[in-house]
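User: Structure with dihydropyrimidine-2,4(1H,3H)-dione, tokens only please.
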Amino acid sequence: MSTLIKNGRIITAEQDYFADIYIEKEEITTIGKDLKIDADIVIDAKDKYVIPGGIDAHTHLDMPFAGTKTCDDFESGTRAAAYGGTTCIVDFAIQTKGNKMREALDTWWAKAEGKATTDYGLHMIITDLPDADIEDMSDMVKEGVTSFKLFMAYPGVLMVDDATIFKALKHTSKTGALVCMHAENGDVIDVIVQQALAEGKTAPIYHALTRPTTAEAEAVNRAIALAEMADAPIYIVHLSSNDALEKVAEARDKGLPAYAETCPQYLFLSIEDDMNKPGFEDAKVVFTPPLREKWHQDKLWAGLKKNTLQIVSTDHCPFCFKEQKELGIGDFTKIPNGGPGIEHRLQLLFSGGVSEGRISLNRWIELCSTNPAKMFGMYPRKGTIAIGTDADIVIWDPKKEYTISASTHHMCTDYSMFEGRKIKGNAETVISRGEIIVKDNEFLGKPGRGKFIKRDTYGTAWQ
Ligand code: DUC
Ligand code: ZN
Ligand code: ZN
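Assistant:
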């Protein structure tokens, strides 16, 4: 199978030029002006952008959480991702207390088997790290699971102590793997939460009001200090506030390998605009860290521009409003934390970022594809357009206008966090390893075609 993409404007993190692309089987084999090569399929990309497929480095498909599980599995989740132009995700396997990482890895491979429609990698969440099991981290690295998430929040469930974090960091310092940190001071938050409940404050908005930005900043600061002592890099996931951002900026100014991502919900939604709705509506935007006051948004955009933040991921953690979010009626602590986002990251960042003059076209690609590939050991196989790389390519129509809505999205949820938002720019054709999987809003990819990506260690692409 061969495909020729003609007349497109190719945009990568570094370049912006007009050329044709020839794909043989799964790879790009030729790039050049006005290519005269016969191909099985010819795509005319005139007036379109030709960009590397998006990489979402933070998703939770088919994940048990708070007595329920996320409603997108690897089939529906990767399909929705592909509709939006994301051709690779990195999902989180969870090692549960008393169980081995290997077991978790097998469980997540089984979840993806026969279902994933795009390529995927896995991070490993560590909830328990006895000294006897620490070498399991090396075993994961050998399997291509080269990043580990640890929680400084959710005491008694997912939270680990500083000693465990430090040991994990010491280990990654040896192997070149990367610790991804959920940075919030869980113990302090728990005290605030219990106090709120005792005062009868049970509505969803109290989820946001009981998780101060200082609790995030303190944990970010501590995580960075622990990483510095362990001589390891650190990656802060779902950074939501200016206070936390300042801690990352400080560390980076000192030359420390501290990195962070933010997510569209923190860039576009806020307590003022999207909470304080009637009834139980606010539960739709209950995730952790929570929404912040609106002024944080500009600071996060500035962080993206200045490279204090390197990546935008979605933290796609979808629960339906009916029956799932509703588990928390009368007690906000029982609302499953998470929101759906896997489908619209490129659109939101293009429409609300590039078109609004907040980031450049190249930076859009860097944040949504190139940097995730570099940070998580997939570059240059993914995250760019070059000869010899995977043909994960999106033909992007910068003029396509539409409105985000749960009635048309492809995620499992019965609501959208961005309902009614007008977007300009959308994925028209999506190619994954040389195969067209979305064309003109029709999904053509077969479940199970997506491959597990054995990832390299983080440092490889940055050196
Ligand atoms: N952290 C995540 O990254 N996802 C869902 C819930 C959480 O706390
Ligand atoms: Zn988290
Ligand atoms: Zn998450």
